[in-house]
What does this fold into?
Amino acid sequence: MGRTAGIWPYVCLAPALAVFIMLEIVPALGTSIFSLTDYTGLPHAPITWVGLQNYHDLLTGGQTFLIRALQVTAIFSLLVTVVQNGLAVLVAWLLNSRLHGQIAVRALVFMPVVLGATVNGLTWYVMFNPLGGPVTLLLGQLGIRANLLGSTATALYAVIWVQIWANLGFSMMVYLAGMQGIPAEVYEAGKIDGTSPWSAFRHLTIPLLAPSITINVLLAIIGTITGYELIFVLTDGGPAFTSQTWHVGLQPGVLQQQPPAGLRLGDRDGAVPPGVRDRDGDAVLPAATGDGAVIRQRRPERVDRRG
It folds into this structure.
């Protein structure tokens, strides 16, 4: 037993290591190899070795969508992380103050987390409907004509609002659990020192919530960087690619869409020039929005290669 004692840790690690290699290392190596070819995923399609040409096309020339998508992702991630955590701390602080009806409020705030991204996206897609959505009608009563999901000026911020609304409940519960774990003696000592409720929140609650803040910030950043379903349901990256994050942009066929010549991405005032046509020779027509013309995004069509 003495001679084999040092082997058993590796024997115990072997099954997990084998699964990790099979499900993580091998697919990663395969993806790296396929990225050096013109592999399309179509059955029986020939595969040609192209070297670093895919990376060259992605970073230079007409493939400037990547830069735009990274900019949108940075704005999306930053605003969602800051606003979502700020609101979650405030709501958790109010619910921790023993207010009447806090159980009902807690359930309502947490409900979007249970519904899921697709249901939340479809719900707000109907709410933002420019022809008769409740939000559009409400803004109309205030004298504001808006197509929040169809305007290049507001589409990204409308998606940001839905992202915050969908995940606010989870962040709130994490902060509420952290606040309830703070000993009451800490606040009693603060009262003896003459701290006001705001001072106690600022100098006692927030510092003691550091672990909860770290968790929520990391989860918010990961969720916004890897999020796909919500943006796909609401805008599919449009209009004019103003809400297209990098994860949406890297879906098959999306980065291959090129903007018409003479039109900047997300340009509200730059209507599509007359006679501009896309790669297939089809005319690209502007879509009417609440504040200007935008590019009508076209989904990549399926190609039937059968006989």
